Amino acid sequence: MTAFRKTLLAATALAMLASSAFAQDVSVLRIGLDGSENEADQMRNAQCVADQLKAATGVSEVQLFPSPDYNGVIQGLLGGTIDIAVMGASSYAAIYLKDPNAVDPILTTVGADGSTGYYSLMVARKDSGFKTVADLKGKKLGFADPDSTSGYLVPNVALPAAIGMPVKEFFSETGFGGGHENLVLGVLDHKFDAGTTFGSGVGDWAEGYSSGNLHTMVAKGILDTDDIVELWRSPLIPNGPLMVSNKLPEDMKGKVEAFFKDLPGKDLACFQGFTGGENTGFTEVDASFYQTIIDARKSVIGG
């Protein structure tokens, strides 16, 4: 046997061994949770997904990995330590701009009104006396998270048209609340004069609209919308994607996608808890659905 043939056979054997080892490694699936609300609630709302995904895919375990911020999940998806996550479009854009092949955006939610979009909403305390965003000149604005679409990226793109100047020139100070829930609590606690969060913008204001952070906070009993006022809303933002790591084998990715597609019909309560509102289902998307957000993030943040 020639040296070349020996080398070729050895390389083939190693490749087969690596492939086999990787296939065996998919005994665990890891879901990242981005810290947009408190960890205990995120874990509780995702547990039904973990239990049912385990049965649907045949893996031995589905692990939930809560992160205190969005970037922890972004880095996990880039590094292959997280397999699945539902996040905002800006978080997907952050991943895409670092490595366009790291994940696939495969599904997004369909809202109560049939739309696949939502809004960035600026809120303030009702007793502040603020009526419009113009009243906030020289005040302190809070953002949710630097990787949040509605809580940072879109306001920085869209607000200048409403206030007539760059955000940093209009407000005396800006800061971050540490996730959407904490941001709104910070507004209520006078840490910020106003803050940017998100919601469907449709449905009953008393319920915090039909989905989004305000809706979730009202449902948990930690927000009364009589205590806040909406000062501004953005243009429609595409709903964030369910992302799946491309480090997973294609057959496993197919099982994961099939599970999530079927989840609303099989367990609507689990689906709505996991996605944070009165959503009706998932619909297929791909990278092109998020191109405007990718372009905006590249322009505003740079990656």
TrEMBL record:
It holds the Pfam family Phosphonate-bd. One of its GO terms (cellular component) is ATP-binding cassette (ABC) transporter complex. NCBIfam families: 3A0109s03R, PhnD. It comes from Paradevosia shaoguanensis. GO terms for biological process: organic phosphonate transport; transmembrane transport. This is Phosphonate ABC transporter substrate-binding protein. Residues 1-23 form the signal peptide. Belongs to the phosphate/phosphite/phosphonate binding protein family. InterPro entries: PhnD (IPR005770), Phosphnate-bd (IPR017797). CDD domains: PBP2_PhnD_like. Keywords: Signal. The keyword Signal applies.
